[in-house]
Write a structure and sequence with these properties.
- It is a single chain.
- Strands 1-2-3-4-5-11-6-10-7-9-8 form an 11-stranded mixed β-sheet, with helices on both faces.
- The chain is of the alpha/beta class.
- It starts with 22 loop residues before the first strand and ends in a 19-residue tail after the last helix.
- The chain has helices spanning 30-35, 75-99, 106-134, 196-209, 219-252, 255-269, 276-292, 309-317, 320-360, 363-392, 397-405, 421-434, 470-473, 478-481, 499-507, 511-534, 537-546, 549-562, 569-580, 595-612, 619-629, 631-640, 649-652, and strands at residues 23-26, 46-57, 63-73, 160-167, 174-180, 408-414, 439-445, 454-458, 461-468, 486-494, 584-588.
- A hairpin with a 2-residue loop joins strand 8 and strand 9.
- The radius of gyration is 30 Å and the shape is globular.
């Protein structure tokens, strides 16, 4: 079946017939092999790689060589710590604004005290969790057996890069990456009452239908209030700065500078309708000063060093300090007016948030906690996937163009059943992945050796700053180097494949899975439309010749509509579309250990067959070999200290054929 390569062979095995296994050898120095990828910077975020090398026959009886690698990421802990720190900062600021609302009626003052008590308890909880996480120095992996630990609930489960590099005789080398991670879910919180999707819908329905005395604000309106409040805090100092620049231009008596400063001030001030009168007074005064100065000429704009007589007259009639003196009181008036508007706006919007909290305690804070936990797990995986995709595609101009013109699709393959607790997990996962829409990326030049990403923002909008060394940063398009925000389009397709899904299909309800797949199909179609509209015609023409995306999308649509039991064709089609669109691939089950291992090994062998001419007679043997001796059985070992996938024979009878591991690799084990 396969032959041993020349060189060190640490772990040679045979298959059940006594023949040599297609596994070539286990690499003892995966770091040096990784260096061949010319991606040394990835060593800063990837840790503890496991590497396996194979040699498989092609359809024309030649040999292809495959390197399979699996690596942990320190982002598993780094991203949650960044995010929790932001939550603490945001919540402390909110609590302070509630305290500063001023004098309230006794009724509202009591409600405020109750709200602050609960909010302070939440901040203390986040601070305790952050303290515990900071003790985990150098950690890069959370095992499946730790998924219920409270101190680790913000950390993703079993997050790894699963990479396959292929060298075949007739095709250029190819690299295929999948991020494997446990479904983002609040395991410590439990699933007795369902997951986020159901809990949020129930919460909003109760609020909308209640006869309670508080005014109902929709999630959209509340989010808008928080956004406006954040913008107020950011814009007020900016407006003050531009007002000071305007005075500085007046003191220099520079008409052009005065115009530019006024333009900047006007743009920043458009959000303050009530400050319009003060701004109009300033505009009128600037126009008057420039007009009396003879237009927009600079004081030294005369020819051959001679001073324009009209300019000299203007100097006499409006000395430099006169410009400043005439604008100064108007600027002070603008700042005073702006300060009053800001104060009233902040108080009004803060009171809106106080009403929301006062009505919905403690449910809203518990939902916020659950959503933060799930989002943290999802974001850690996303940042890991984005950085790896960026580094592997830095020399691809088409990818870089797509990155800043369109953004990237991020496709999640879910293997959860719609039965028992996994319904709640899927409901959590669906919301967590959807929430990734509020994340944007920004690539900056690294000024030090610290290349770990930095997160800024608030719950409604986050920016992840990814650092690149100068030599790599210079490869980027100008738009990206200038700080353009880069967007992602997350989509989730789920197909349950285990025996619990059999129960759900025959005796339960699969509508959750059907709804999620249909909703995300529409999102994927939207991305494809944007992609076709924004990418250059020359690229689209070549792209359409190479890829029948329209046909694949229609095929995916038909399979989703068919409502066929355990229709894994949905996952294969979604994964293919994602790869053809230069997207980021994820595969998830409860722990990213057993079902995920079956899926990624099947995907790898399917790619070898469809893209690299793997001999059809060796497909099953290659699949069994990867599952028996490859990286994924090592993943099982590091999670539960046992080389057994957590399946039994009865369970596997319910699995689709190609998702069943070879004999001897499964049995009784804690999952």
């Amino acid at each position: 079946m396969g032959e041993i390569e020349d060189g060190e062979a640490d772990h040679v095995t045979t298959d059940v017939q006594g023949q040599k296994c297609t596994l070539v050898y286990e690499c003892t120095a995966p770091e040096s092999v990784a260096g061949k990828d010319n991606l040394p910077l990835l060593n800063a975020v990837l840790k503890n790689p496991v590497c396996k090398l194979y040699r498989f026959p092609t359809s024309d009886n030649k040999w292809m060589r495959i390197r399979e690698q699996m690596s942990e990421s320190i982002l598993s802990f780094h991203i949650p710590k960044e995010l929790i720190s932001l939550h603490i900062k945001e919540d402390l600021c909110r609590n302070q604004e509630i305290k500063e609302l001023g004098e309230l009626s006794p009724h509202w003052d009591n409600l405020r005290k109750n709200v602050l008590t609960h909010c302070d308890q939440m901040v203390n909880m986040y601070q305790d969790i952050l303290t515990e996480l900071n003790k985990e120095t150098g950690s890069s992996f959370k095992s499946s057996s730790s998924k219920g630990e409270k101190t680790l609930e913000f950390v993703p489960i079993n997050l790894h890069l699963q990479r396959m590099q292929v060298r075949s005789p007739h095709l250029k080398d190819a690299l295929y990456d999948v991020i494997t991670v446990g479904a983002p879910a609040a395991h410590f919180q439990g699933f007795k009452n369902g997951g986020l999707r159901k809990l949020l819908q129930r919460f909003e329905t109760e609020r909308r239908n209640t006869g309670y005395q508080f005014i109902y604000y929709s999630p959209e309106n509340t989010a808008k209030a928080k956004e406006v409040l954040s913008n107020i805090n950011q814009l007020q100092p900016l407006i003050a700065t531009h007002a000071d620049l305007l005075l500085n231009s007046a003191s220099q008596r520079s008409p052009d500078s005065l115009k530019n400063s006024l333009k900047m001030l006007s743009e920043k001030d458009r959000v303050w309708a009530n400050v319009g009168k003060s701004l109009n007074c300033i505009i009128a005064m600037v126009d008057k000063l420039i007009e009396s100065d003879g237009g927009s000429k600079s004081p030294d704009s005369g020819t051959d060093g001679e001073t324009d007589p009209s300019q000299a007259d203007s100097d006499t009639s409006h000395p430099r300090e006169d410009w400043y003196a005439q604008l100064h009181p108007l600027i002070l008036s603008l700042k005073d007016c702006m300060g009053e508007v800001v104060s009233r706006a902040k108080q009004s919007l803060t009171f809106v948030l106080l009403q929301e909290l006062a009505y919905s305690l403690p449910q809203c804070l518990m939902l916020t906690l659950r959503r933060d936990i799930v989002f943290s797990q999802a974001l850690a995986g996303l940042v890991c996937g984005f950085i790896i995709k960026l580094h592997t595609s830095l020399h691809d101009p088409d990818f870089l163009q797509q990155l800043h013109m369109v953004g990237l699709v991020v496709q999640y393959e879910g293997l959860l059943s719609t039965y028992s607790d996994e319904i709640g997990m899927l409901e959590d996962m669906a919301v967590g992945i959807s929430d990734l829409k509020k994340v944007a990326f920004k690539i900056i030049e690294a000024k030090t050796n610290d290349v770990l990403p930095v997160i800024t923002g608030r719950r409604e909008h986050y920016v992840v700053e990814v650092k690149l060394p100068t030599r790599m940063f210079e490869l980027l398009p100008l738009q990206i180097k200038e700080g353009q925000l880069l967007h992602v389009y997350p989509v989730l397709f789920n197909v349950g494949i285990n025996e619990q899904q059999t129960f759900a299909e025959r005796f339960g309800d699969v509508s959750l899975q059907e709804s999620i797949n249909q909703e995300n199909l529409e999102l994927l179609k939207e991305y494809y439309t944007i992609f076709m509209e924004k990418m250059p015609p020359s690229y689209i023409s070549h792209f359409q010749e190479q890829n029948d995306l329209k046909g694949l999308l229609e095929n995916l649509h038909q399979n989703i509509q068919a409502k066929k039991r355990k229709n894994v064709e949905i996952m294969w089609l979604a994964a293919t579309i994602c790869r053809k669109l230069n997207g980021i691939r994820f595969t998830c089950c409860k722990s990213a250990k057993d079902r995920t291992s079956m899926s990624v090994t099947l995907e790898q062998c399917s790619i070898l067959r469809d893209e690299h001419q793997l001999h059809k007679d060796f497909f099953i043997r290659a699949l069994d070999c990867m599952r028996r001796e490859g990286c994924r059985i090592e993943n099982v070992l590091k999670n539960i200290k046992c080389r057994k996938y957590a399946f039994n024979m009865l369970q596997l009878m319910a699995f689709p054929k190609y998702y069943r591991p070879p004999e001897g690799t499964y049995g009784k084990a804690d999952t």
